[in-house]
C-alpha cells in the first residue's frame, strides 16, 4: 500500500539556521509528492509539489527534490525565520487518483 | 471566492448526541473530502466524493455519514458521538487540472470535543 514516513518532531532551530525535514514514501506506480504547511489554528496550505522523478518543487525559500532511487522528498530551507514555525506534512497521491496519503507531520519551532 | 468554508469552528458534544459538520466550496470543484487530524497520526481520510451524488469511504469511515446533493456542499454527520471522535476535522476540495496536478484546498477546520 501507499504510505509516507516523516521524521518525528519537534524540530527546534534558531532563526537563520538550515532546515531539513526528512520524508520517505512507499507507493505503487509513480506518485506525485507534496509538502503542506499548517500554521497555528489554521487549515493546511500547499507549500510545494513535484510530479515526477528529479523534479524540484520550491516556494517561499523551501525546496524539495523528488528522488525516486531513494523514495524520498526531503524538505529544506537555507535560513529559517520565526514565521516558519508550523507543522509540515509530507503527502503523496498516486496517478489517476485524488486521494492524498499524509505523513504524521513534523512540528518546526524557530526561536529568535 | 471564499474558498472552502467550514462551520462550526468549535463544538462540544455529549456522548450519544448527533450533529452535522458543514463544508462548502465556491470553486466548482468536483472532488471533496473529509479528514480527521489526531496527534501523532497526521490526517486520515474519512469519506470522499468525486461529484454530486457520488460518495465513498476512506480510511476511517465508521461512525460518520456523508451525502453530496450539490457540487458546493459536503456535510459530515456524526450519528452517535463517541469520545474517540474527539478530533480536528478538515474538509478539502480539488478540481482536476491535468493528470498529476490535483491541488487540494483545505478549510480552516472544526475542533470537536466529545465528553
Put the structure in a nutshell.
The complex is a heterodimer of chains A (112) and B (115). Chain A has 112 residues and is mainly beta.
Report on the structure:
The complex is a heterodimer of chains A (112) and B (115). The mean pLDDT of chain A is 93. With 112 residues, chain A is mainly beta. Chain A is globular. Helices cover 0% and strands 50% of the residues of chain A. Chain A starts with a strand and ends with a strand. In chain A, a hairpin with a 5-residue loop joins strand 5 and strand 6. Chain B contains no helices and 11 strands. In chain B, strands 2, 4, 5, 6, 9, 10 and 11 form a 7-stranded mixed β-sheet that branches. The model of chain B has no long low-confidence stretch (mean pLDDT 91). The chains are: A mainly beta (112), B mainly beta (115).
Pick out its properties.
heterodimer, A: 112 residues, mainly beta, 6-stranded mixed beta sheet, 4-stranded antiparallel beta sheet, 12 strands, 0% helix, globular, B: 115 residues, 7-stranded mixed beta sheet
Topology diagram in text:
The complex is a heterodimer of chains A (112) and B (115).
Chain A: E1 3-6, E2 11-14, E3 19-21, E4 23-26, E5 32-38, E6 44-50, E7 56-59, E8 62-65, E9 75-77, E10 86-93, E11 101-102, E12 106-111
Chain B: E1 4-7, E2 10-13, E3 19-25, E4 31-38, E5 42-51, E6 54-57, E7 64-66, E8 76-78, E9 87-94, E10 105-106, E11 110-114
Parallel strand pairs in B: 2-11
Antiparallel strand pairs in B: 1-3, 3-8, 4-5, 4-9, 5-6, 7-8, 9-10, 9-11
